[in-house]
Each structure stands twice: as structure tokens, then as C-alpha cells.
Amino acid sequence: MKKALFILFTIVSLSVFCQQSVQYSQYSFNNFGYNPAFAGTTKCINFKLGTRMQWMGFEGAPRSSFVSVHSRLGQKKFSGRGGKHAVGLYVEQDEVHLTTRNAFKLGYAYHTKVSMKYTMGLGVFAGLQQYSTDDIFGGENNPDPVLANAAGSVIRYPDIMPGILLYSKKMYWSFSINQLYFKNINLGQEEKQVNQYYFGAGHKSVNGHWTIFKSFLLKQNIMGPPAIDLNMAWVYYGAITMGVGYRVGESIIPQVKLQLGKFGIAYAFDYPLNQLRGNFGHEIMISFSRCKGGGIGDGSPGKDYECPAYN
Q1: Which of 150, 170, 188, 252 is paired with 209 by a 20 to 30 Å CA distance?
Q2: What is the count of structural domains for the chain?
Q3: What is the pLDDT of residues 121-152, one digit of tens each?
Q4: In this structure, are residues 279 and 287 in contact, taking their beta carbons and an 8 Å threshold?
Q5: What are the C-alpha distances in Å from 263 to residues 80, 259, 260, 282?
Q6: Residue 225's CB: how many other CB atoms inside 10 A?
Q7: Which CATH number characterizes residue 186's domain?
């Protein structure tokens, strides 16, 4: 039954792959990938990489990887009425059996105080995406016209993603639109690309050496029901994070993160609750920053550094 479900998923993916976006269980570790306005919300240059292996045991199951870097520019603190600028780079690859998507995005963000308590960030990604399909069904000799036309296809097109971020020392609200550039995609049959909407929020509270971080991320497009991730994490001394996530109707996700000086390493285990139960998922992410602490959106207590976004 599981094999039949996966074969059906593979065939359907040829027509809807361009409508879907990568989903990471540790979205708070990779918030820059979901919203370019997160660029510059750490004191020092911030480097991250990660990989996600979904539905282990299925040949051709989804595999996703990313590398990102972002940094603020100019002064450390807000002065007068001026804002702060930041730049970044995000590179991602997503493989789903027959299809591979590569994305290369340059990011820019501008942060400005809107009150004594809150700061607003406006950001945009601009770059290029490439979709390609494998030729494993005989190409033009295949009797199925969809598979015959899709075999070996490669398409490239511009990609634009704007985002907005409102935040303080304790909370944030995030909204972004992925795939803003509309284009008809032909991977065996004509499909129109659609927008992906990301809406998230988080709140942290500090109690002694512990920080409790609660967050959610909602992903929506017109092609299907929304995907909702709920997350709660407990951070001890800013060094050890233990958390649990729930992807509504899909999986339970235990998570752990260790901060080892300038390096951080995080792991998440996806336990499916649907018919794919037993085919687990694994996710590993690594970060590097010259400064201690973290940024908004990741649950760090923020006591060990002075973040420009907060001052």
C-alpha cells in the first residue's frame, strides 16, 4: 500500500511540483529561507547549512538541502531616524524522485524603528530557479505523452520573494510571498506557477536560566489545504535547546540543538502520523557566527550579545 501511494505521488509530482515549496521542521533555525526580512537580525555575519531526508525507506523520497549567509551593513545601533541595511545569499536544492529544483537567491533587507518597542524589517529575494526532470522512462518512446514530454526537461526562470517582519525583544510576526514571479511551467504538461504564502510568529519568555520559545508557521497556496507547524522549545543557558513540533495532521517532531561556542548544531526527527508511519524523516542543520547568542526567531535568550535589531 505504501509503495502504491508513493508511485502515485511520484506521477502527480510531475504536474504539481512547481506548486509546492520545501518544508523544514526546524523552520526557526532557517527563518531567513522563509523570509528575506530576517537578514541582519543577528549582530555578526550568520552562516547556516542544512539537509532534510524525508520518508526514509522510499527510493526517490524528498531530499532537501540549503546554504545561507546574511549580514547587516554599517553601524551597530539605530541612530536618529535612519534605518539599517542587510544583505544575504540563499542557495537550495530540492529533489523529489524524478524532479530536481535548484534555487539561487540574493537578499536585501531594511530595518527601521516604528516605536520604542518595535522594529520593522522589509526584505526581498531576487534570483533564479531551475527545474529539471530525469529521463528514466524512455523519453520520447514512452507511450504516456506526459512522461515522454517531461523526460529530460530543464527550465529556468526568475524568482522574486518579498517579506515583512515586525519584531521586538520578545516576539516577532513574519509574512512573505514565495514565487511572486508568475510563469507557465512545462514539465510534460502546462502548469501555471502559483504563489506560496508564509505567515509565522513567535514569542519567548525568560525565567532564570531557561527561555521558553513558542512559534508557528503557516504555509498556504490556492492548490491545497494549508500546512501548519506548531513548535515549542526550552532553551537552557542559551546552549542546550530541547523542543517538540507538530505538523498538523502529519507528524510529531522531537528536536534538539546544541550551541558550542560559535557553532550550533540541530537535529529533528519526523515521526509520521499518517499512512507513511514507519518511514521517518531526519533533519540536520549547522550554524556559525562570530558572535555569541542568536537572532530573533530562533528562541535564543539574547543576553550574551547586543543585537542591532533590538537597539
Answers
A1: 252
A2: 1
A3: 999 999 998 887 766 555 555 556 655 565 66
A4: no
A5: 34, 6, 5, 20
A6: 9
A7: 2.40.160.40
